[in-house]
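Quick sanity check, ATP-dependent DNA helicase RecG:
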Amino acid sequence: MIHEPVSQLKGIGKETAENLMKIGIHTVHDLIWTFPYRHEDFRLKDLTETPHNERVTIEARVESEPTVLFLGKNKSRLQFTALAGRHLIKVVFFNQNYLRQKLLTGNIITVTGKWDRGRQVIVGSSVTFGPKIDQVDFEPVYSLKGNIQQKRFRKYMRQALDTVKEQLTDTLPTALRESYQLVSIQDALEGVHFPLNAEHAKQARRRFVYEELLQFQLRIQALRKANKENEKGISIRFDLEKLKVFIATLPYELTGAQKRVVNEICKDLLLPQRMNRLLQGDVGSGKTVVAAIGLYAAVTAGYQGALMAPTEILAEQHAENLHTWFDAIGVKVALLSGSTKAKARRELLAQLATGEIDILIGTHALIQPDVQFHKLGFVITDEQHRFGVEQRRVLREKGESPDVLFMTATPIPRTLAITAFGEMDVSIIDELPAGRKEIETHWLKKEQLNSVLMRMKQELASGRQAYVITPLIEESDKLDVQNAVEAYEQLKAYFGNQFEIGLMHGRLHSDEKDAVMRGFSEGNIHVLVSTTVVEVGVNVPNATFMTIYDAERFGLAQLHQLRGRVGRGEHQSYCVLIADPKTNEGKERMMSMTETNDGFRLAEKDLELRGSGDFFGKRQSGLPEFKLADLVHDYRALETARQDAAKMLYEEAFWHDDEYEYLRKELEASGVLQGERID
């Protein structure tokens, strides 16, 4: 019966069946696995403990005759006084004037509605006459389309569950259910659709959340397993003694986090499987030196290394750092970009092909067909999300299965890192170098802009530089926000000829952007007005002051990335957020920025405020749509499911026992296995 068309159920005719198909319900199975997105809570509440604007159900005694005010055609407002416990309150119903005849003084009623705590008013949505006796505590609410009503849909759901519930075989193995004390599939379906009480609903949700996350992690871990076993790599037998000597010559001692990550990378280099590792590090945490140690390890084993950066300026900065560390020990570093002249390029490519160049740094110019390595062993892409999958693949294929390290300065919460990048190993540098001064962050209102400009002027007068960030390029009729062009003109007028002001935004050509950025890097431009194109990777140690206009329009992660452009030198740095947020969430973002400089804490907060889809952007997130699981709040279940899935795939029972059949079939249906076993 469970896989029969839904029209087999009593009361579902042709038209209803067609309407159900529009929301993806074809069979009885589809119906019972269509979960409610919330439950109406009809439990009686004490108004003393009910927050403002919350939905509430109360028992009350009618204390006054209802009055009705007619507001126009078919519109009315009915109002009466009622006593709920110790509270004498007003109850209001809109467009239900027929209730006047039934609401008799002294009678007990049960009212559900929204509680206005300040005005002591309930705006009612439903009322029953008499005390609450036989009414349910929880009623499911489904996402429906067309003319299917909630009441009728619940009736179909009740009938479907009663018909097939006992025929269902549990989709989780008994050992797993017992280990985590998860309810049976029958009890879980009852609890998710028609819970008897709050605990019943909680246990049903707990079971389905774990099951959803387990199925998802089985796909991720199977992909990870297949990658490790099918992608043969190279074992880079580096010279450990030389590596230790090199690390000892660095001008500062590595942090504990850097040492941990270096060990993880070195361990990967030695393995015969290809490295596929994501390196996360907050702004200024020292990812570049970790990358340099990895590159040097490859060089000591006779291999070449490549580092691809998204912009010329960032590539130049990497080249400058690597020259500082490597020139003295005879490791040859070269830079290749779109600006490299034809003759120099020919010479460089010839040296690369013969192995004279040990490490090549560059932009996407590295992936052009004529760039041929002699023996490429280690590839690093910086700010990997700025490159397409195809660009990263072409760079990898410049060698014979080289090890690959992806770096990003965008802190990603652990819950999302193990989900969105589950097929990679993830390393995190979560510690800043000793002695680095924390950036002072202040939140001011727009009317305080003049005092901000005066403070900026002091920094500029002492020889420092400043950024001014705006959310839009040009004026918008719809949004009253500061834009780059207007801010540029205002600052030119304010500072006159005292300081040079530069303007950068996304509509400039790349060579124009580079020219402005170079002017700022070399100190010829004192104030850089920019949209968020300045976000990634620019290193100007002399820049100590940042002002972000309309800061409430940015997410926390983006604000933190922008703030990271200052605080890169020996001088104290400042970030001023100019914002007048209208929402509590906006105010919370501003407060969070002033309270911490920890990018990972801010990323967790951003995820909490915006949700996983918005954190990455719905389209490119690669995250599945879960029925019940929430990656923010269910992170413990996600971690457990990840460990269980990884272990399960290496056990014989998963591939043979009947109890695992459902999970096996779901994994096969996902296409990850491509119809073949991976063990």
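Posting the structure with no commentary besides this: The chain has a mean pLDDT of 86.
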